[in-house]
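Re: weekly structure request thread

Next one in the queue (305 aa):
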Amino acid sequence: MSAKTFSEILTNTVEELACPESYKDLYHEHSDGVPLPSGEVLQKIIDLTRGIIFPGYYGQSSINKNTLKYHLGVDIEQLYQLLVTQIQAGLSFSNFEEGTAVFAAYSQTTINTEMRRMAEDRAEKFIGKLPELRRILATDVVAAFNGDPAAKNYGEIISCYPVIKELTIYRIAHELWNLEVPLIPRMLTEMAHSETGIDIHPGATIGEYFTIDHGTGVVIGETCIIGRNVKLYQGVTLGAKSFPLDADGNPIKGIPRHPILEDDVIVYSNASILGRITIGKGATIGGNIWVTQDVPAGTSITQKR
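Done, posted below.
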């Protein structure tokens, strides 16, 4: 029996991959007005926002005080236009995927117009948040600098430290999450995860003066609430325990399931803090331990010898 030719293998492979059963739930059929957000454009949004928040360190390196206002105007205008297109894509895709009946009686043109209006509104609100984003990220820079005796200056923190690269994207994504922009916040934080090794869900709430030393392997879940002046080390997990199930055996989503860390908490490397528990103000959690119960304020938890 002769071996199959490449042409036969190609034909059979295409037939199998084109079978609807093989790509069920894995296929997005493009429809006019229902695009997917673009990872390439989202990277441009990240780059522009970094340049706006940290001028001279990112973006236009030749910027100076005389040209700052001009460059900010140009960059913010471009950022707004990119945000509108991507937010519209996220809104349109989400509406299409969920089969929302709200627009069922309208033409695709009318739907696209309404999605555009919604995207413009959210983009405008995000642009208005940029001064606050810069203010809170400045506190994160201070926290990273004060928390690392090896750091020589703020410029080193802004240029080199993965925590600032991660937090910039996380805080962008969190604002979009609060504006109920679908899909894009998760795409942004997964891009940050790939860049830094730090995995922060955009739904998590993180206060001022937050830092992560080294950072690799840190995981912060969706419903985490983190207070001011909190410091984590590498490998820390702020996660959930096993999920409660509904009557059909499916995980119940949308419930608080991750830890609360109050102000001034320190968590050392490779600690796992799981479930909706509270780590009290000023507590210290030692490395390589598993915490599933509340920790009172001011307590130090370490491994037993």
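The longest strand covers residues 211-213. The mean pLDDT is 90.
Next request, please.
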